[in-house]
Design a protein that fits this description.
By secondary structure, this protein is an alpha+beta fold. It folds into 2 domains: 111 residues, no CATH class; 74 residues, Nonspecific Lipid-transfer Protein, Chain A (2-Layer Sandwich), CATH 3.30.1050. The chain is globular and about 50 Å long. The two termini are 27 Å apart. This is TIGR03085 family metal-binding protein. InterPro entries: CHP03085, DinB/YfiT-like, Maleyloyr_isom, MDMPI_metal-binding. It comes from Sphaerisporangium rhizosphaerae. Pfam families: MDMPI_N.
Length: 211
C-alpha cells in the first residue's frame, strides 16, 4: 500500500468516527466540508481550479456545496475512500496518485486530527518522513513566497532548505511533517521552533502561507 492510500484510509476512518460536524483546521470547514472538498478535487475537475485561482473560487465553492448537499455524509466519506476514479488524472496514470495525493492527504489528515482536543504528533514511517522533507525542501520557495520575511527551514539534524531569500530572516526548525504544516499555513498547529527577532517571528506566524 502506498503512503497516499494509507493516509486516505486513516483519514476516512477518522472522518467516519467523528461525523460530519467536527471541526478542522481549514477555516470555516467542518469534516463534511473537507470531505466534499476532496470529492470535488478528484471527481469534479472542471471545478477544481478555484482551489488555487482566486477568480474561480466562487464557482468552486458553489460546486463544493452542491457536492456536500447532494450526498449523505457516509456517501461523501465513501467517495473519498474509493479514491480517484479511472477517468480522473489522479487515477488514470500509474504513480500520479502517490505523487500528487501523498502530501494533500497527509495535510488534511492532520487538519482533522489537530482540530480535536488532546492531539499529539504521529510517528510516521521513515521513508514517508524523508519523502515529506524532499517535497518540502524542493517546494519551500513557492509555498513561502508570500512570507513577509526571509525564511530558512531546518531539520533537527541540521539539514536546511531556503524558503525565501530576504532580510531579516527567521529560521524555522522542526520535523519534516511539522515544517510541511507550517509551510502550508498551519503555523499555529505546527510544532516548530523559531529563531530570529521577535517582530519578524510574529509577522511570519500571522502570514498567509501555502500554495
Amino acid at each position: 500500500m502506498t503512503h497516499a492510500r494509507a493516509e486516505r484510509a486513516a483519514l476516512c476512518d477518522l472522518l467516519d468516527h467523528l461525523g460530519p460536524n467536527a471541526p478542522t483546521l481549514c477555516a470555516g470547514w467542518a469534516t463534511a466540508d473537507l470531505a466534499a472538498h476532496l470529492v470535488l478535487r478528484e471527481r469534479r475537475i472542471d471545478a477544481a481550479g478555484g482551489i488555487v485561482l482566486k477568480p474561480l473560487a466562487g464557482y468552486t465553492a458553489r460546486v463544493q456545496e452542491g457536492v456536500k448537499s447532494g450526498r449523505s455524509y457516509p456517501e461523501l466519506v465513501d467517495a473519498v475512500r474509493q479514491g480517484p476514479p479511472p477517468w480522473s488524472p489522479y487515477g488514470f496514470l500509474p504513480g500520479v496518485d502517490a505523487l500528487v495525493n501523498t502530501l494533500e492527504l497527509l495535510v488534511h489528515h492532520e487538519d482533522v486530527r489537530r482540530a480535536q482536543p488532546g492531539w499529539e504528533p504521529r510517528e510516521l514511517p521513515a521513508d514517508l518522513t524523508e519523502t515529506v522533507w524532499k517535497r518540502v525542501s524542493s517546494g519551500a520557495r513557492m509555498m513561502l513566497r508570500r512570507s513577509p520575511v526571509g525564511v530558512v527551514l531546518r531539520l533537527p539534524d541540521g539539514r536546511k532548505a531556503g524558503g525565501k531569500k530576504a532580510e531579516p530572516h527567521v529560521i524555522v526548525t522542526g520535523e519534516p511533517v511539522e515544517l510541511l504544516l507550517f509551510a502550508f499555513g498551519r503555523q499555529e498547529h505546527a510544532r516548530v521552533a523559531y529563531e530570529g527577532d521577535q517582530p519578524s517571528i510574529d509577522r511570519l506566524r500571522q502570514a498567509h502561507l501555502g500554495v
